[in-house]
Please model this.
Amino acid sequence: MSTRIKSVDDIPGLRRITTQTLQEMKVSGIKIAMLTAYDFTSARLLDAAGIDVLLVGDSASNVMAGHETTLPITLDQMIYHASSVVRGVSRALVVVDLPFGSYQGNPKEALASAIRVMKEAGAHAIKLEGGAAVVPSVERIIEAGIPVLGHLGLTPQSIYRFGTYQVRAREEEEADQLRLDARLLERAGCFGIVLEKIPAALAKEVSESVEIPTLGIGAGPHCDGQVLVTHDMLGLNTDFSPRFVRRYANLDTTIQEAVQAYVGDVRGRRFPNPEESY
Model:
C-alpha cells in the first residue's frame, strides 16, 4: 500500500469499506472513524456522511431500551437492530456485537450466534469482548469465515465483575494481561481490537505492537481509529458525560425545541395551514 495515500477514498478500487480496507488504513496512517448505529434512518445518514465503520453495539440496551447495563439485550434483539442498520448502508463496514450470554458458554455456541448474525442480519463482521478466555471461540468463528473484532480494557458485559466503570489496566499486572490478550487476539485472527477506557500510553504501546488496527474509546489519541456512541456524540444522551466524549451537536435541545414549536402550532391552529392541506 502506497504511503502517498492520504485519504481512505484514495484507496484504488474502493467501493465499500472492508476489513482489508481497515488494514490498509492502518498501514497508510489513515485514522478510522467508527460510530454506533441501531436503526435504518441513522445508519443511512451516518453512511452518507462518510463513516468508515458502523457498530451495532449492545449499547442499544442502554440508549434504545433504557436498561442500566448492556446485559439484558438478547441475540434476537441484536439481529433486529443489525438488519435495520444493514439496509441503510452502502459504504460502511457493519460490525455487530454478540450480546452477553450468546458466546461465553463454548466455541460451538459462539459460532452458532455469529452465524445467525451474519445470515439473518446480513452483517459484515461480529465483535465480542474478552482476551485469552474467548480465543477458542474467536478461532472457531474465524475458521467459519466470519471476521471478528476483539474488545479489551473496560468490557461492559463484565461490569458486575469489575464493579465500576473506571479506567482499566492502570496497574502493571492488568496492563501485562492486556498486552498478552492483544497479541493472542491478533494471533487468533481478529481483524482489529477495540481498546476501551485504558491509559493512553498503554493504548499507544499496544497499537504499535500489533499489526491489526486498534479502535479506541477513552483510550487516547494514539489508536488507529476512534469509536463513540452516536447518541453521546450528537448530544442525544446528555445524562452520560465521561471525559472521552466530545459532543459535536446538542440534538437534545434541538429536538425539544422543535417539538415545543410543533405543539404550539397545533394548539394555536397554525398547523396545518392551507398550503399544507389537500
